[in-house]
Amino acid sequence: MKKVLILCTGNSCRSIIAEALINAKLDGIDADSSGVKASGRVNPNAKKLLKEKGIWKDEYHSKVLDEVIDNNYDLIVTVCDHANETCPLFPKPAPKIHVGFEDPDGKGYEAFEETYKEIEEVLLPKIIQTLQKKGNPMNKNVFKTGEGVKIAFTGSVEKQNIVKMVENCATGQCECMSDETKKKITNMEVSGKDGEVHLDLSGDVSKEEIEAALAKSKVINK
Fold first, then answer.
1. Angle, alpha carbons 65-66-71 (nearest 5°)
2. Which of 65, 92, 160, 195 would you label with 139, given CA atoms 20 to 30 Å apart?
3. Which residues are catalytic?
């Protein structure tokens, strides 16, 4: 059984709906939800909708992080920008993805129905896809080229993680590459898609230097 945590700000609407949908619709996956600033209440419209859909459980409630932070999860999903930006480090690390949805809180019942539909159509397939990739390890192949070095990432790799690694290097936040190696690189370009990402590094840099840096990268080795 795979364990998934859905994280948002108040844990009253989107994450509760997502928790209920995952538990009702996805075989072999068990979901919890929580809020970085839990409201302590489930929105009445969210509860009404889940009851009408026949997937409400009395155990669903707005939870603070302390209730779930020590659990083992195979995947953590943030469904609002605030939760994505403030997601804490869990004692037992797990892969994290962000799939944002507009907050229906304070809107009419129709907004909750639309949120339910979007979560079912967008989030559930993404969770299945991500968990399937997790069973397929990331492969990193480094090649020397005439312009520098090319890295081919395949398997369980998300393009956004490679982009983040490049951004960290560009802004001086990278700890995996030595200052000497950074000075040799004149350009970094990411291409491809999830599952098959390419990173081209231009400059007088060696294959061995890049392989050493990749082994230390916290972004792709988490």
1. 85
2. 92
3. 8, 80, 87
